[in-house]
Amino acid sequence: MSSVSPSPLIALISSECSQKHAHNRGFKSLSHFIFPFTSHECQVREPIDNLKASQRIRLDIRDISSDGHLLTLSVLPYVLIQALKTCTDVSQSIKLFRDVLARCSEPSEHESFGHYLACIFVVSTEDENPLGEFSKMIQTQQTLYNTTSTLMIPGHCSTPKWAAPHAKTPRHYILLHDSRSPRSSTERRDELLAQMCATYGNDNCQMLQLDSDSESAEMKGVWDEIDEFNDVLEKGLEEAHQHSTDAIAPGPNGASNQQSPSSPTSSVATISSTMPAVGSVSPNSHPNSTVVWKSSKKLASLADAKAVQAILSKFLDVCLIPYVEKEMRFLYETAGQKKGIGKSFTSMKRWFGSGTALSNMATPITYAWDSSEMQTRRLADLLLMFGFPNSAFEQYRGLKRDLEADKAMAAHAVALEMCCVALHSAQPQLNANQFMIKYLETPVSLLIEHAKRYPSILRCAFNIADIYSDLGLHKEAALNLAKVSSIEGDHLVAVAQTLAAEQFEKAGMGRKASFHRVLAANRFSNAAIPALSFDCYRLALPAFDKKHWGVLDEHLAVRLLEEGQKAGVMTTDIASECIRRLVAVCPKLSPSLQTERLRTIVNALDIYFPHRNEPVEMLTDIPKVEMETVKAIYGERPLWNEIDENEHQSVSSDGWITVERAAHHALFGASAPYRGMQLVSDEHSDNQKIRETPAGERFRVMVDLTNPLKIPIHLQNLRLSVSDIHNQSGIEGSEKSIPELGALEHLQLDPEETKTIELYVFPRVGCLKFRVDGLLFQLAVDQKDVEARVPLKCRGKRLNKTAKQQKSKIYTNDERLSATVAQKPWPLVEFRVIKSPHQWSYCDQAQRYQLEIENIGHENVMSMCLATNAFDRVAAGSIDENEHHQQFKMNLAANNAKVATFRFEEGSTSSTDSFLKIGEKKRIFFDVRSSDEPTGSTVAPKQSNTVILIAYRSSNGTMRQWRRVIDGERRRLIALTAEILDLDTKSFSIHLKNCVAVSQAALSRVEILRIRTDRNEASTGIKNDCSTTVLPSVNRRVEIESEQTDTIVARLVPLSQGETIKESWLTTTTSVTPPKWPCPAEIHSTMDDEFASKIAEKIGILWKANIVNNEGLVTSFIGESFIDDPFVKLKTLKKDDSVLSSLRISCETTAKEISHNFSASHICELPITLLIQNKDLQRRPVSVSIKLSSKVREPVDGIHLVAPENRHQMWIDRPVRKQTIGIDDEAKLEMKWKITHAAVYDVGGANLSIEAIFEGSNDAVIFKVPSVLSVVKSSSYTVV
Question: What is the 8-class DSSP label of residue 898?
Answer without folding.
Answer: T
